[in-house]
Amino acid sequence: MATPPQLNQTFGSSVRSLSSAPMGSAPMRFMPRSSQPKAHGHPHSSAPTPPASFRSRSIAASPQMLMGASEPKPHASSQMFENNLEPFARAQSFEGFFTPSPALYKTLVKSSTAPKLPDDLTKGGEDAEKVWCTFLCIAYLEAKFASERDIWIFMVEKAEMWLEDALAHIIGMANMNTAKGRVREEARKFISM
Question: Bias regions of kind Polar residues — which residues (predicted)?
Fold first, then answer.
């Protein structure tokens, strides 16, 4: 089977190899560009044009793209923590503890420094302050945001899982539950002041 000269010039050897396909195979048809479906965007794309409802939701037309990035968020202040759960969510680490900060302590205990560590945590090293801050945050959420429990309960559950591991390293498994109860009560006393 001979290949038409204009196809040979345009497609070269690939057309010759296709034209020598076995007789039983389906013939390939080339569609001229003018009869191919029009694509949205690039003129040589064969992708169909999306419906108008999708085109109107273009990222390029979004207010963020037109107006630029939003202003950077300010650092958390103690006033932000008092009536809002969002700063608590931001203060919680991926692992589950609440990251100690002066603004957080100012909200929790009305001082920019952590209250004295409970005796059970004095041998805790660098994790002791994270543990203490996490207990204080849990006590604060339970006391001040009790009516919004369904919002913060997952933060507390995550914190409790982290506390289990941290306390096991600090105190040991044998004394963990009693020490956990004492530290929790101590945190509640500070929050109720």
Answer: 1-22
Question: Taken in order 6, 9, 11, 12, is the CA torsion positive or negative?
Answer: positive
Q: What's the CA gap between 157 and 104, in Å, rounded?
A: 19
- Identify residue 112 by its one-letter amino acid code: S
Task: State the pTM of this model.
Answer: 0.58
Q: Tokens standing for 103?
A: 């603004």
Mean pLDDT of 169-174: 85
**Dist CA 190 CA 25 (whole Å):** 83
Query: Does residue 86 carry a pLDDT above 50?
Result: yes
Question: Is the model's pLDDT at 166 over the cut of 90?
Answer: yes
Q: What is the rounded distance in angstroms from the CA atom of residue 136 to the CA atom of residue 81?
A: 13
Three-state secondary-structure class, residue 40: coil
